[in-house]
Design brief:
Elements: H1 9-20, H2 25-29, H3 42-46, H4 62-72, H5 78-84, H6 87-100, H7 103-111, H8 113-116, H9 119-124, H10 126-141, H11 183-196
Helix pairs in contact: 1-4
Length: 202
């Protein structure tokens, strides 16, 4: 599997993560950056929501990060599939994606956010079981099931991690449009990220 350092990671991420959720939950847990799962309270998510943001990028819970990166943003898989299939089949696949991973899926996840971002919810909850089954159906229907050597730790492109700040880079990997970031802004982002992970088990 591509890592965040690869330029093509953003294009392949959802495709890889849909395959990732099909391995055993205990195996997934071993890949996460944060090892101790602390459930996310609804306020932490909803306080960050506005016209420009549909999730809280400062939440460090890996189950939340996985849901956001794979399912809330499932549209990100379509440029890859357009290149692979094109034409009418592309429109069919996009319709299938929209039907499987519609707003109702996200609504149910966020309505019971604390449970769905808990270890018990991840291993046994109805929401994650449904997401795994929908991923399997989608990938199987279009012959997209694949075996990956998943990175450890697993990091998601929408989120930042402490080791992303080991060296100042004016054009970091999270600058998808190629924009540069000032040292001052970089230091501010670093402080926010370090504070978020201060008490985490990584």
């Amino acid at each position: 599997m591509l890592s965040l350092s690869d330029k093509a990671f953003y294009q392949y991420e959802v495709y890889c993560l849909m395959n990732f959720v099909l391995i055993k939950p205990e195996s997934q847990l071993a890949h996460f950056y944060v090892k101790r799962i602390m459930p996310v309270c609804a306020e932490s998510h909803f306080q960050a929501i506005d016209l420009d943001h549909d999730f809280n990028s400062n939440i460090i819970n890996p189950l939340y990060q996985l849901f956001i990166s794979c399912f809330l943003n499932s549209l990100k898989i379509m440029p890859l599939l357009e290149g692979l299939f094109g034409g009418d089949i592309y429109r069919e696949i996009n319709n299938e994606r929209e039907n499987l991973f519609d707003d109702e899926v996200s609504n149910r996840f966020f309505e019971n956010l604390e449970f769905n971002t808990s270890l018990n919810g991840f291993e046994n909850g109805e929401c994650w079981q449904e997401l795994r089954e929908k991923s399997r159906l989608f990938l199987t229907k279009y012959s997209l099931l694949d075996n990956f050597d998943f990175p450890n730790p697993m990091k998601f492109s929408e989120f930042l991690y402490p080791d992303d700040f080991e060296k100042y880079d004016p054009a970091p990997r999270w600058s998808w449009c190629g924009q540069s970031i000032s040292l001052e802004d970089w230091a501010q982002m670093k402080n926010i990220t370090m504070a978020a992970y201060k008490d985490a088990v990584i």
